């Protein structure tokens, strides 16, 4: 991850891929597609056509109940997490705005991610993601970036590979749930096909036959886990230019996906 400052509100994110995506599936559909057994209706998130860093996002994960000391049977949950991983040792949760992506090449060894990669992996349901193509300077000498929406050609949900982590507010009470923050990050790799023509990086995903192994908190072989990761839709992505309205995180709605003339 580049050491850029956190993206300011209203600005498009220009860091590593993936920096913006779309998540509009209803929780009832997500629980069915991912075999979720534990979901709370009070944690329902609204459809989001412009998911940005620090937003609340759906994550599918497996963990044992805390009351059993982590030794009980795991449950597959659908939980809202904040996008931007905050390591447990972080002094300030604001660091999460810079840790929205983890590179697959180093995720198993970087201090911010290695513990989560070994024990706290998740899936982030997505309809597709945005990326910006850098264009040649215009007459004023300023670079331009054209937004694109990339999505599976078959219209299926994307199961983006992610990690999650716990962070406790040192000023909070131990038994206060509000003192705990759950955050997540998306794993990325070199881009290919449609994504590679627009941006050098892209998110990684999993196929349904690999969900169980990826989410299993008892698996910890780094090479085996990395071998489960694939390119979204097996690389069969469509890409269409969309309005620069997506650049502003305050803008939201299905109109952001409308194709515009490139």
TrEMBL record:
Which family is this sequence assigned to? Answer: Belongs to the SOS response-associated peptidase family.
Q: Which Pfam families match?
A: SRAP (PF02586)
Q: State the protein's name.
A: Abasic site processing protein
Which UniProt keyword terms apply here? Covalent protein-DNA linkage, DNA damage, DNA-binding, Hydrolase, Lyase, Protease
Q: Which residues form a coiled coil?
A: none
DNA damage recorded as keyword: yes
Q: Which SUPFAM superfamilies does this entry report, sorted A to Z?
A: BB1717-like
- Species the sequence originates in: Streptomyces hygroscopicus
């Amino acid at each position: 991850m580049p050491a850029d400052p956190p993206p300011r509100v209203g600005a498009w994110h220009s860091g590593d891929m993936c920096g913006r995506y779309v998540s509009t599936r209803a929780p009832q559909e997500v629980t069915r597609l991912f075999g979720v057994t534990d979901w709370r209706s009070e944690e329902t998130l609204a459809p989001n056509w412009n998911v940005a860093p620090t937003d609340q996002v759906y994550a599918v994960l497996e963990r044992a109940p805390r009351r059993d000391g982590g030794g009980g049977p795991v449950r597959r949950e659908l939980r809202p997490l904040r996008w931007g991983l905050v390591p447990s040792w972080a002094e300030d949760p604001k660091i999460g705005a810079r840790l929205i992506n983890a590179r697959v090449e180093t995720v198993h060894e970087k201090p911010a991610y290695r513990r989560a990669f070994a024990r706290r992996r998740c899936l982030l349901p997505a309809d597709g993601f945005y990326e910006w193509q850098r264009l040649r300077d215009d007459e004023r000498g300023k670079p331009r970036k054209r937004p694109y929406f990339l999505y599976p050609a078959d219209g299926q949900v994307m199961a983006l590979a992610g990690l999650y982590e716990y962070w406790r507010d040192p000023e909070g009470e131990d038994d206060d749930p509000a003192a705990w923050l759950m955050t997540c990050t998306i794993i990325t790799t070199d881009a290919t096909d449609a994504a590679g023509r627009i941006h050098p990086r892209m998110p990684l995903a999993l196929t349904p036959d690999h969900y169980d192994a990826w989410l299993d908190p008892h698996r910890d072989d780094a090479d085996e886990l990395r071998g489960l990761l694939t390119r979204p839709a097996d690389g069969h992505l469509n890409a269409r230019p969309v309005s620069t309205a997506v650049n502003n995180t305050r803008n939201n709605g299905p109109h952001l996906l409308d194709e515009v003339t490139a």
